[in-house]
Write a structure and sequence with these properties.
heterodimer; A: mainly beta; four-stranded antiparallel beta sheet; 12 strands; 53% strand; B: mainly beta; seven-stranded mixed beta sheet; 11 strands
Chain lengths: 116, 113
Amino acid sequence: AQKITQTQPGMFVQEKEAVTLDCTYDTSDPSYGLFWYKQPSSGEMIFLIYQGSYDQQNATEGRYSLNFQKARKSANLVISASQLGDSAMYFCAMREPTGGGNKLTFGTGTQLKVEL
Amino acid sequence: DAMVIQNPRYQVTQFGKPVTLSCSQTLNHNVMYWYQQKSSQAPKLLFHYYDKDFNNEADTPDNFQSRRPNTSFCFLDIRSPGLGDAAMYLCATRDRVGNQPQHFGDGTRLSIL
């Protein structure tokens, strides 16, 4: 069974600083995908970034980058130049390749607070 | 331009009174998902449709049903809501091709009186 672990229930970062949110995973499937989502207090889930298990390079998307270390089974999200609007819950998720459904297994999330 | 639209944004119902939540999409995606998310928890998948094929999670209570009359619309029916069903309900869609992410709606926050 697949498993996602986020060990940081809460994180604080000062505005304009970089922050790393940890995510480790466990799977026996050689083909998998890892996703990060942001959920503000208003509730919507916003897709941030994706990393495929066969991707040679770490994914980047604007201020978001993914530090993918396959041997260590970690996929940490790095947010550079933090902004007040980055304050939210962040979920790491893994795609389960079950037929065409491609279900997601979510971690428990990390609550990020950006301070002045 | 909202692509996955959930109505209503907030829903209040009485204990035991059936309620329907709706989700529509303009993305023409094959797969649609319904999640339940309780406070400070990760989303929990209830079921998903792959085209017209319905896939129920093993631990989804019988109280929860779903309908997908066409590609664009999907409904979540709660037949007899209990206090424990108060939660945020999230709808998501995904294109079946490749490693596409799931696109979520804004959610419906359900309260039970």
